Amino acid sequence: MSIAGVLAAVASLTYPIAIVLPKSDADAVGLARLSIYIGIAMSLLAAVILFFYGPEILSLVNGEEIAAFMYLLPLFMLISVIGMVMRQWLIRKKLFTLTAKVTVWQSLVMNTVKSGLGLIQPTAVVLIVTNTLGALLAAAMMLLGLRRTSANNYGEDRISRPSSSVVALASRHRDFPLLRAPQELLNTVSQSIPVVVLAAHFGSASAGFYSIASAVLAVPAMLVGNSVMQAFYPRINEAIHRGEDVKALIIKATLGLVLSGAIPFAIVIIAGPALFGFVFGVEWQLAGVYAQWLSLWLFFQYVNKPAVSAIPALRLQKGLLIYEVFSTGTKVLALYLGYTVFKSDVAAVALFSVVGVAAYAWLILWVTMRSGKLATRTPFTRN
Fold first, then answer.
1. ∠ at Cα 193 (190, 198), nearest 5°?
2. Hey, which bits of 182-224 come out as E strands?
3. How distant, in Å, are the alpha carbons of 103, 227, 230, 366 from that of 223?
4. What is the domain extent for residue 43?
5. At what angle do helices 246-280 and 204-220 cross, to 10 degrees?
6. Does residue 371 belong to any structural domain of this protein?
7. Has residue 322 been placed in a domain?
8. Terminus of the chain with fewer CB atoms < 10 Å: N or C?
C-alpha cells in the first residue's frame, strides 16, 4: 500500500486538483477528462514496467513477498485517479454532505469486511485486495451520488464541448504536472518511507507497529482535517477572486484546528503506550511509543490543512516544491541517523517526527505570510 500510494500520487500528474479552479464547469469537465486519460496511460505504463522489471524493482525495497500481487498496483493507480476526479468535482460543487456520506459508508463497509475476513483468513492478500476494492467502492459511490443529486445537473452539451481543448487546458494548468506532481510524489514518499525503512532495517514487526500507530492517529485528520481542507479549497479560491482578506481566513481556520486537535493529540502524547496496550493488547505497547512521537508530527499535519489548501489558488506551487525537497530530504536523513547512529527504531521515528514538526510549522508560517503579500495584488483568476 505504501508503494501503491506513491504511484497513485502521480498517476494523473495532479491535474484533478486543478478541477476546482476554472470558472467554467465545461473547462472543469475537460480537466476531469484529461486526468482520466493520463491515468489510463500511466497505469498502462506501470503495467508494462512491472511485466519486464517487477521482481527486480520490488527486491530493491525488500518487497519480494508481494510479487504475486504487483499487477494490482496499476489497477489501484487507475481507480485512485477516478476517485480523485470524483472527489475534486464534489469539492467544486460543494457537495460536502455527499463526500462525508461516501467516506463514512466506505470506511464502515471496508473495515467490516477486513475484520470479518481477518477472522477467517488473516493474510496479506486479504488486506491488499480489500484495500484495492475499497478504493473502487469509494469511486463508485461518488459517481452514483453525483448522478442522483440535482446539484450536479449540467447539460450534455457542456460536457461534450468545453470552451478549451484538452491540450489547451493541459498547457494552461501546466504548473500542476511540472510543480505539484513532483511535490506530491515527494510528499507521498516522505509519508511512506518510514514503513519501507523500518521493514528493511528493523523488521516487519517495527513496520507493523508504525503502521497501526499512524493509522490510528490519522483518524482525526481524515474525519476533520480533510473535511476542512475540502471546504476551504473552493472558499479560498472565491476569496481571492473577490479580493477578500485571505491571510485572515487562513489564520482563523488554522487556529480553529489547533483548538479542536490539541486535547486528543495531547492525550496520545502523554499516555500513548498505555492506550495502545489497553485497546490492542500488551504486545502493541511499542506502537504506543511510536504514537507518542508521531502525535507531534501529525498534529502539525492536521493543522496545516488551510495553508496547504490555499497554495494552488495563491500560485505558490513552485515554493511548495522547493519546500518539499528540503522537507523530504531532512526526513530521510533523520531516519538514516536513527538507524546508523542510534541503531534504534524509536529514535528513527522520533527524529523523523521532530523534523516533520519543524517543516510543517515553517510551511504554515510561509503560506500565511505570502497570502498577506499577495492580497495587495490583482486577484488571480483562471478561466
1. 145
2. none
3. 9, 6, 11, 26
4. 1-171
5. 130
6. yes
7. yes
8. C
Q: Is residue 383 situated within a structural domain?
A: no
- Provide the total of helices (H) and of strands (E) in the chain, helices listed first: 16, 0
Alpha-carbon distance of 59 to 347, in angstroms, equals 26
CA 3/CA 25 separation, integer angstroms: 34
C-alpha cell at 71: 499487477
Specify whether 163 is located in the same domain as 253.
Answer: no
Task: List pLDDT tens digits, range 267-318.
Answer: 989 998 898 888 888 888 888 899 899 999 999 998 998 999 889 888 899 9
pLDDT in tens, 313-347: 888 999 999 999 999 999 999 988 988 888 888 89
The x, y and z cell numbers of residue 39, run together, are 491515468
Distance between CA atoms of residues 156 and 347, nearest Å = 57
pTM higher than the cut 0.85 = no
Contact indicator for 306, 232 with CB cutoff of 8 Å: yes
Cα–Cα distance for residue pair 332/352, rounded to 1 Å = 8
Quote the CA–CA distance of 167 and 165 in Å, as a whole number: 5
Which amino acid, one-letter code, is at 329? G
User: Does 188 reside within a domain?
Assistant: yes
Tell me if 374 sits within 8 A of 246, measured CB to CB.
yes
- Give the three cell numbers for residue 227: 473535511
What is the C-alpha to C-alpha distance for residues 364 and 121, in angstroms, rounded to an integer?
44
CB atoms under 10 Å from CB of 171, counted, come to 10
CB burial of 251-289 (b: ≥16 within 10 Å; e: otherwise) equals: bebbeebeeebeebbeebeeebbebbbeeeeeebbbbbb
Q: How far is the first Cα of the chain from the last one, in angstroms, to the nearest whole number? A: 37
Rounded CA-CA distance 137/261 in Å is 30
